[in-house]
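Hi all, a correction to my earlier message: I attached the wrong file for GNAT family N-acetyltransferase. Here's the right sequence:
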Amino acid sequence: MFPCKIDDEIELSLPDIDHDAKALFNLIDQDRNRIMKWLPWVKHMQTVKDEQIFLSNSLIDYQNNKSLIVVIKYHGDIAGTISFNGFDENRHTADIGYWLGKDFTGYGIIHRCVIGMLDIGFNHYDLNKIIINAAVENNASNNVAKKCNFHLDGVLRENELLLDGFHDENTWSLLLKEKIHNDFHSNKI
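and the right structure:
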């Protein structure tokens, strides 16, 4: 399944701890304040070693079918990550998380990666529903959900703890039967 070619520009791959940790850490460190606004875990990534430990743990979780974190490569350069943060086996659901370094925004990369993750989730993990949760104020993430034809299920009050306190969170979902009836590749990227 991996590496997984999304298109001529984008590939998803399992993390190579020795190779990817430094590049991912550098992307985070160069744009720490912007990324940390929406992803509080960034404050814990203080060294390349922290990233290595995280990637090592994510590979263990992958082997145990608990989660899936993959590295996004754009024209061969490491651009960020996208993940299924956890699988709910009883409900056949998973939620998607993602981030990109600042130099990789504005190219439709996350939109295309989410489409790729939908295929992986529905076809390889037997998911029935895939979820995107985003703070109401996180316009970029909410726009990804809209562009990928996710359904806004509702707003959960004070459901996301960010660095500046609790925020209301939009919960978006896409069902397997909706994916089958939509042509996602017709969206302009």
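Sorry for the mix-up. The chain is about 35% helix and 35% strand.
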